[in-house]
């Protein structure tokens, strides 16, 4: 009703927004966003509207975000890193690229989110969680008369040659987590033998973790290694995509948030950080068609959020695989032995 009244008075809504912003907290905030575009946009506009703080936001995969933050460490241009797989956030904390901050809202969070913060000495915190798995285009799979892959070992069968995409682990936290997951399931040597076999079936390594899923949705590829919580959003958009979690077990992400050390807009970064841990802020994920498990205990859990009780989850070692040296070692080995080989 208020909107209609203001329109009736002939006051432009943009002018109202500008006026509200002028009367509220002033200043700006520079954020790297590691979730999908819809959620990034909702977080940006909702926080700006309620605080008057101008939010400048760019979307990047976790690996790319970490590389940028490291490159800018002497003169940070980013204030806060919102979302993306937790391993790179832990690596940023280890490299002293992020700032310790214990939000007053941390007591609202689930244990795994608090444990993530404690592991990083409060230089990061868990925002959401979700399992890794496969997505597939049901129409393409049926057209090509291919069976649904149910296990990791299925993906290396010759019948799937050229039908699979996984992101590049150098730029994608999703793909790095896939490598770390396989190492934990089979042991490192067998995992790299597997990755070499999988490479023969890979058509492309997109830069972002969601890239393979988007390509599967649009029929540009058949199967992707993806987080399964991203699939319901594609279904809502009308794409014939389904998800499965591998029979051998799978890892999961703790999507995280970190304040950058040397942030120019530190006060505003802390305000966003506190806000992002509240239930209303985390419920924006579903509004943005994303279905991770929120870290806030009071946030509503949508029925489309993957039920981890029905998924064989490994005891993912976040401490080990969140180490910068371990990430660098595994990525160098992948680049040399897998990506450097020919199909």
Number of domains: 2
Q: For this structure, what is the CATH homologous superfamily of the largest domain?
A: Periplasmic binding protein-like II
Oligomeric nature of the chains: single chain
Largest sheet: 11 strands, mixed
CATH fold-level label of the largest domain: D-Maltodextrin-Binding Protein, domain 2
Report the portion of residues in β strands: 15-25%
Give the topology string: H per helix, E per strand. Answer: HHEHEHEHEHEHEHHEHEHEEHHHEHH
Mean pLDDT over the residues: 91
Tell me the number of strands.
Answer: 11
Q: How many helical elements? A: 16
At a glance:
With 343 residues, this protein is of the alpha/beta class. The chain is 42% helix and 16% strand. The chain folds into two domains: 2-129 and 254-305, D-Maltodextrin-Binding Protein, domain 2, CATH 3.40.190; 130-252 and 323-339, Periplasmic binding protein-like II (D-Maltodextrin-Binding Protein, domain 2).
Describe the structure.
The protein is of the alpha/beta class. It folds into two domains: 2-129 and 254-305, D-Maltodextrin-Binding Protein, domain 2 (3-Layer(aba) Sandwich); 130-252 and 323-339, D-Maltodextrin-Binding Protein, domain 2, CATH 3.40.190.10. The chain has 16 helices and eleven strands. Strands 1, 2, 3, 4, 5, 6, 7, 8, 9, 10 and 11 form an eleven-stranded mixed β-sheet that branches. β1, α3 and β2 form a beta-alpha-beta unit. α4 packs parallel to α5 (86-94) and α8 (173-186) packs across α9. The radius of gyration is 21 Å and the shape is globular.
């Amino acid at each position: 009703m208020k909107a209609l009244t203001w329109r009736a008075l002939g006051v432009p809504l943009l002018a109202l927004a500008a006026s509200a912003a002028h009367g509220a907290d002033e200043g700006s905030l520079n954020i790297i966003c590691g979730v999908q575009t819809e959620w990034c946009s909702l977080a940006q506009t909702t926080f700006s509207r309620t605080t008057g703080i101008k939010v400048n936001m760019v979307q990047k995969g976790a690996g790319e975000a970490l590389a940028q933050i490291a490159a800018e460490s002497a003169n940070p241009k980013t204030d806060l890193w919102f979302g993306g797989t937790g391993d790179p956030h832990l690596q940023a904390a280890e490299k002293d690229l992020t700032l310790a901050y214990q939000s007053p809202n941390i007591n609202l969070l689930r244990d795994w989110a608090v444990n993530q913060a404690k592991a990083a000495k409060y230089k990061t915190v868990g925002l959401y969680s979700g399992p890794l798995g496969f997505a597939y285009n049901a129409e393409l799979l049926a057209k090509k008369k291919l069976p649904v892959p149910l296990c990791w070992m299925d993906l290396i069968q010759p019948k799937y040659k050229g039908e699979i995409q996984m992101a590049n682990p150098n730029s994608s936290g999703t793909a790095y987590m896939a490598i770390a997951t396989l190492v934990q399931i089979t042991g490192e040597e067998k995992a790299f033998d597997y990755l070499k076999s999988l490479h023969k079936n890979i058509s492309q390594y997109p830069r972002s973790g969601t890239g393979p899923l988007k390509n599967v949705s649009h029929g540009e590829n058949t199967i992707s290694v993806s987080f399964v919580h991203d699939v319901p959003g594609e279904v809502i958009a009308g794409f014939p995509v389904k998800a499965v979690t591998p029979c051998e077990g799978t890892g999961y992400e703790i999507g995280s948030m970190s304040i950058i050390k040397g942030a120019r807009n530190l006060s505003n970064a802390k305000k966003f950080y506190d806000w992002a841990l509240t239930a209303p802020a985390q419920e924006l994920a579903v509004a943005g068609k994303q279905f991770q498990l929120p870290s806030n205990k009071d946030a509503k859990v949508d029925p489309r959020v993957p039920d981890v009780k029905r998924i064989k989850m490994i005891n993912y070692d976040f401490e080990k695989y969140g180490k910068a040296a371990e990430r660098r070692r595994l990525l160098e080995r992948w680049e040399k032995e897998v990506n450097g080989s020919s199909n």
